[in-house]
């Protein structure tokens, strides 16, 4: 008996999924285990795996199989959604000529390498030639994908990270937020100034003890160490596969809070991956939906849950016991204050929950203008500084702390930035709906019982994988599309009205 | 311009090589990092990578490309040797029908799983059905490969591990050794009995300190930690890739010598991989020659070098300083005696240098008889015990310590065992030739200077990769084919005449 077209295409994508999982483990190995001298051989291994996947995906048989499978009348909804996601992958892979993909990949690698030196040297001018080449090729890719996908060039890039994302929607949402944000920041800072400054928790905090704390919290929250690991890397990330989730952090012996919050953030990502439906493992429909929903899961845990006063009531005794400390600095209330300090700051990755969206809106606006050509790379530093003044209220003294700070653009990643703040908003909206649906969620957190929350997330987010669009998942879970007012209400409640 | 057939086939095998490297890192991850819950997904990843490699290798285009490339008159000797090795891979891959490969792979997995329980339970009878199926399918594979390769069935299996290996040659060499070995063992034990027993080194030896010792010795010997790692696994091995060699060991807090000798053994494997010619990386001709030569490199370092009195003169002060010990037990001479104790024992992996070949010759003879059908699996335990009596001089009290002890056969690996002792003999012969060629090698070892030895090995073994056959490499390096008399002379010199 011959396999049906659907069965054939599912087998092909299952193999692609298995190769993707293998790459994900190798990527983790790169960041956590590999000696430096292994880099060239690893790059070769990864390039070959990339090439094989590209060939499997762009094979001449794929479009016919997709069409024939779509014509089958014996498919269920998940299978139809799987075909839709396969077609999306195939469209992206075939939209751009191979030589353009290769040129862009090389230009991005070269520019990223140059950026690693240019940033500490504050040398934007020196980076400009490489950066121009990256932008030129990214524009070409955007135009090619736009034509194929029937989208604007920016939305075609955005679609790589945020399937079906729309800059029209983002413009509206970010426009609303940008109007209220400067006032919100002012108000949060005024409210903060009315309270005594929180007491510092004095170090040192040995790395081993910080790890013990991290593991205790992760286990309590529901991370299963039989299906995952916690390691150290220079840049924290969540990687691996749904059955073997590998998160990383870095520890600062003077300040345990940064490493701990990093772990909690990555644990949110990890539990999303772990909660994806095992039945659809390695199939496109079984993958996480997109970057904004992924970020919503890390931010829901880190920001909504773990920076709440309730969470600190549960966590404070664990911190006191494990670090062997006591005194007023280690009260839940004081720790909560420390973890919710607001400040106008220059660096996005160090920004607090209130000012963070301003950093993102700036980057979103700039990258759109760069892509259309309304803004030139020569004018980027000045535009950056103007935007920082308007949105955050401070101006970087140099490009190192300005437009050179993030790797994304120099690595060719345009269209990624908005997902951070879409994720923060989605997190607020999901957590709000979850609490209203299940009254045991909020009191559970203060007692260290996260089961009700994750039961809700499994059903409403994790288990849906890519069965629906991000917008559909949000609407099904919360009763309405993404609404920036809910996020604003959260900020007001925590930072202004409390 | 179209690529030549040679260039095309080299590209294809380069991709195969890159996938093989990726698999090797994933295998290391399996053994050292992966949480148990990741096993099923990892098996799926590995199976897909295996399948893709099989498809690339058995593709209909391969034989035509091999023929066309062989007809090119612009190839150098390395390229011709590369084609020869490609053809060997292709012959092995296409010799056996896919369904037989799959049946054998499944039967071996099932039998290996059953063996993990049957061994501790001493249940040979219970394992028999699964073991029979493995042997039946292995015979079928041997016959299929024999026909394709123009070899006997046993030699066709041997060729997988020891390219161009010949049981006719092994019969002769092992025959010579088997005649003298019982007498050698008797004489070594008598000589040992004349000396006072060496003093024990008393533990405990913390794992961390043992690791410090291991790293010091590895670095001194020439292991480059910029291109490799040392980790812990249940079964020590040398894995990874030539640019990123990953060796493992296990530590016993009561006895540092076992872990240390394990590290030195794996370091020998690692330095062979690391010394393979970078120009031929990921090509068949650039791979290590075969298992006997690989084992010769680990045994040359472990047995010839690191169990010598000279090495202990260098290592004893490091051991004393790092473990913080002193006294007569820690003299070079006493440590040397500890590391060269001889005993009739039941378990191959615990055997000393003198008795080890007897364990191997027994297995070699038995596996040949099993393959021809001259010995049935029902009669294996009795034949094992008879062989132990004749060759080693003791009889196992049960099958757990007898024919159930090694994983090889139960996992379908017939034809592997002889490479251990061929490796030990090759090690003796290479080390003998090296010392006669360069008079600075022997005094270097006592001073911790291993550079002269490895300079010789790089030129005469490592750098040749698979450019020549094992026999050719031995002849070029030592002036004659493998000669068991040199190994015997080494045993007599160290264990009987000293």
Please tell me about this protein's structure.
The structure is a homodimer of 498-residue chains. Chain A is mostly helical. Chain A is built from 20 helices and 3 strands. Chain A starts with a helix and ends with a helix. The mean pLDDT of chain A is 97.
Structural class of chain A: mainly alpha
Oligomer: homodimer
Overall pLDDT level of chain A: 97
Structure annotation, total helices of chain A: 20
Quote the distance from N terminus to C terminus of chain A. Answer: 67 Å
Could you describe the largest sheet of chain A, including whether it forms a barrel?
A: 3 strands, mixed
Radius of gyration of chain A using CA atoms only: 23 Å
Chain pair sharing the greatest interface: A-B, 38 and 38 residues
- Percentage beta strand of chain A: under 5%
């Amino acid at each position: 008996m011959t396999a049906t077209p659907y069965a054939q295409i599912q087998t092909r994508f299952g193999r692609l999924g298995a190769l993707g999982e293998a790459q994900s483990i190798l990527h983790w190995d790169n960041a956590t285990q590999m000696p430096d001298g292994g880099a060239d051989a690893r790059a070769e291994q990864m390039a070959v795996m990339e090439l094989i996947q590209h060939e499997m995906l762009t094979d001449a048989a794929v479009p016919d199989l997709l069409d024939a499978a779509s014509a089958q009348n014996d498919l269920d909804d998940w299978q139809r959604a799987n075909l839709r996601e396969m077609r999306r992958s195939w469209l992206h892979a075939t939209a751009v000529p191979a030589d353009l993909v290769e040129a862009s990949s090389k230009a991005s690698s070269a520019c990223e390498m140059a950026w690693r030196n240019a940033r500490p040297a504050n040398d934007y001018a020196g980076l400009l030639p490489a950066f121009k080449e990256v932008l030129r090729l990214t524009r070409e890719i955007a135009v090619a994908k736009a034509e194929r996908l029937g989208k604007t060039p920016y939305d075609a890039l955005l679609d790589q990270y945020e399937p079906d994302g729309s800059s029209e929607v983002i413009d509206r949402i970010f426009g609303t937020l940008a109007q209220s944000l400067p006032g919100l920041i002012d108000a949060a800072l005024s409210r903060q100034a009315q309270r005594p400054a929180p007491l510092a928790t004095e170090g040192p905090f040995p790395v081993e003890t910080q790890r013990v704390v991290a593991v205790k919290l992760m286990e309590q929250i529901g991370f299963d160490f039989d299906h995952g690991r916690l390691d150290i890397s220079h840049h924290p990330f969540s990687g691996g596969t749904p059955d073997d989730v590998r998160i990383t952090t870095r520890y600062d012996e003077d300040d345990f809070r940064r490493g701990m919050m990093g772990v909690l953030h990555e644990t949110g990502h990890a539990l999303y991956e772990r909660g994806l439906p095992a039945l659809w493992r390695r199939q496109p429909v079984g993958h996480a939906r997109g970057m904004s929903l992924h970020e919503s899961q890390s931010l829901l845990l880190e920001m909504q849950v773990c920076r709440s006063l309730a969470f600190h009531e549960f966590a404070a005794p664990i911190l006191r016991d494990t670090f062997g400390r006591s005194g007023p600095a280690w009260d839940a209330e004081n720790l909560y204050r420390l973890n919710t300090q607001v400040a106008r700051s220059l660096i996005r990755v160090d920004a607090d929950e209130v000012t963070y969206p301003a950093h993102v809106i700036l980057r979103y606006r700039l990258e759109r203008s760069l892509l259309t050509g309304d803004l030139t790379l020569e004018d980027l530093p000045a535009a950056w500084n103007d935007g920082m003044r308007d949105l955050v209220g401070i101006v970087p003294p140099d490009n190192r702390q300005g437009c050179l700070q993030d790797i994304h653009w120099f690595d060719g990643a345009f269209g990624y930035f908005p997902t951070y703040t879409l994720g923060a908003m989605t997190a607020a909206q999901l957590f709000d709906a979850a609490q209203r649906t299940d009254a045991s969620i909020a009191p559970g957190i203060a007692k260290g019982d996260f089961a009700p929350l994750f039961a809700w997330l499994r059903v409403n987010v994790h288990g849906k994988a890519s069965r629906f669009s991000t917008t559909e998942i949000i609407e099904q879970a919360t009763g309405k599309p993404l609404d920036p007012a809910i996020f604003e209400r959260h900020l007001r409640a925590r930072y202004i009205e409390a």
